[in-house]
Write a structure and sequence with these properties.
By secondary structure, the chain is α/β, with parallel strands linked by helices. It has helices at residues 4-8, 41-47, 75-78, 114-122, and strands spanning 69-71, 84-86, 94-96, 106-109, 111-112, 126-129.
């Protein structure tokens, strides 16, 4: 059933909405973030102050150092015939205490966790830490 207003505006082309009011989001100035740098600029500055520009920084990849680790449980698998291991030459920075060992290793490394040192000493092994 057509209402009174529809009947009233028959033949008027715009039905009282102006030229763009009936098309898409014309009457409200666009959809979403349309016009943030034009007619909605003050709204953006007040309610969305961080919307434009760069924020923070990304560290250069050369500056980020990633240590390589090995657990003592993996020592026998990786070095089955060796008893003396220089982990620095193997490219490993730190020795961790995960797993168990059955040999008395003599290990040279930059860093080692307290648990790793304790487990190796329990097997009559030795850990030499390299001073940097």
């Amino acid at each position: 059933m057509t209402g009174n207003k529809t009947k009233k505006f028959r033949g008027s082309m715009t039905h009282g909405r102006g030229k763009k009011g009936g098309r898409g989001a014309g009457l409200r100035g666009g959809k979403g973030n349309a016009g943030l740098l034009k007619h909605r600029f003050m709204h953006m500055m007040k309610y969305m102050p961080d919307h434009i520009g760069k924020h923070g920084f990304k560290r250069p990849q050369k500056m980020i150092k990633h240590d390589t680790y090995i657990n003592i449980g993996a020592l026998e698998e990786r070095f089955p015939s060796k008893k003396t291991i220089d982990l620095e030459k193997e490219g490993i920075d730190k020795l961790l205490g995960g797993g168990n060992i059955g040999k008395d290793f003599k290990i040279t490394v930059k860093k080692a966790s307290a648990k790793a040192i304790e487990k190796i000493k329990a097997q009559n092994g030795e850990v030499n830490l390299i001073k940097q």
